[in-house]
Amino acid sequence: MAQIGTDIHLAKTYLEAGNVVGIPTETVYGLAANALNPDAVLTIFKVKNRPSFDPLIVHTDSILKVEQFVSAIPDAARILAETCWPGPLTLLLPKRDLIPDLVTSGLSTVAVRIPNHPLTLALLRSLPYPLAAPSANPFGYISPTTAQHVADQLGDQIPYILDGGPALVGLESTIIGFENPIPTIYRLGGMDPAQIERLIGPVDIRTHSTSNPQAPGMLSSHYAPRKPLRLLRPGFSPPPGERTGTLAFRQSFGGITEHHQRVLSPTGDLAEAAKNLFAYLRALDTLDVNVIYAELLPSEGLGQAMNDRLRRASVPDGSAINDSQ
Ligand code: TXA
Ligand code: MG
């Protein structure tokens, strides 16, 4: 069983030996390995049960280090890197040969991010190589926002989880690429697109392709709990049922056991809601309920990214009850 602790040196020792280690970030926990060691990277894919066509994000601690493994940084990307890093934003940049093809699933771009977490930044600063790290969940399941989430699902397969407390953002990073005339967001996430547009002008948002996805985080079925999840438009209530779990934005629903309900933010704060989203979905998934109803959030700021995750996690196809009304 994985040891959970705050020992950066121990984490480093395991990484040096080619092991995979759980690491905290401000978005979600990652499953990290030496990005320049193909054997270690292969272990990430095995532990996650992740298909090899789904590329990984490479994490480091400075733009200077990024320049060692990408061949160019377009102007818009540099502005974002200098303003938003460390932070919940991933840039797709042309890769140098140094980065193994396994990391990028053979793509010519590499996804890069400087995460904003003191423990992980200290670890990255101490390493002569970057860390490849997907979210530390089995492929297709909800991302982990605590060390315990990682231990619950992958603890028997990894030696160590660096515990940095609950993730403060709680949603995966926003992913943006620069190969089109207008920068393109491929995954909504912890950084609000409006904030990006204020820095670099208009962006395209293309997160909905279901076939041959640019980013498999865009696959329509992803981030899902094991229990069926159904969506509710804001203001609508779930149909009555004994074994119903609910996830609401500001207040719980009448007629359902309080024990089966979770409220994301009683004050209506989207950042607080994002921080709680995945932990509450996990908690509901472990209850004795047959179905989970989740209320969609206001479609602004982080609400858009949260609705994206809820739609992908839902059955059958992301449509909300009362969508046609
Ligand atoms: O917040 C995050 O991004 C977290 C933390 C640990 O940093 N990581 C994360 O990784 O969410 P992962 O592997 O769960 O999601 C990475 C997404 C995948 O959907 C993958 O397809 C996409 O990034 N991706 C990686 N490299 C890519 C590339 N070169 N082009 C397009 N998409 C890429
Ligand atoms: Mg993931």
3D structure, described in words:
29% of the residues lie in helices and 18% in strands. It contains ten helices and 16 strands. The protein is globular, with a radius of gyration of 19 Å. It has two domains: 3-218, Alpha-Beta Complex (DHBP synthase); 229-321, Rossmann fold. It is of the alpha/beta class. The longest helix has 17 residues, at 270-286. The termini are far apart. The mean pLDDT is 94. The protein has helices at residues 8-16, 38-48, 63-69, 75-84, 101-104, 118-125, 147-154, 193-200, 270-286, 302-313; strands at residues 3-5, 21-23, 30-34, 57-59, 89-94, 109-113, 131-132, 160-162, 174-177, 184-187, 204-205, 229-232, 244-248, 261-263, 291-295, 320-321. The strands form two sheets. It has an eleven-stranded mixed sheet with strand order 1-8-2-3-7-4-6-5-9-10-11, with helices on both faces. Strands 14-13-15-12-16 form a five-stranded parallel sheet, with helices on one face. The relative contact order is 0.15. Bound molecules: threonylcarbamoyladenylate and magnesium ion (MG). Magnesium ion binds next to loops. Magnesium ion binds at residues 134-135, 143. Its EC number is 2.7.7.87. Keywords: ATP-binding, Cytoplasm, Nucleotide-binding, Nucleotidyltransferase, Transferase, tRNA processing. It is an enzyme of class 2 (transferase). It is found in: Cytoplasm. Required for the formation of a threonylcarbamoyl group on adenosine at position 37 (t(6)A37) in tRNAs that read codons beginning with adenine.
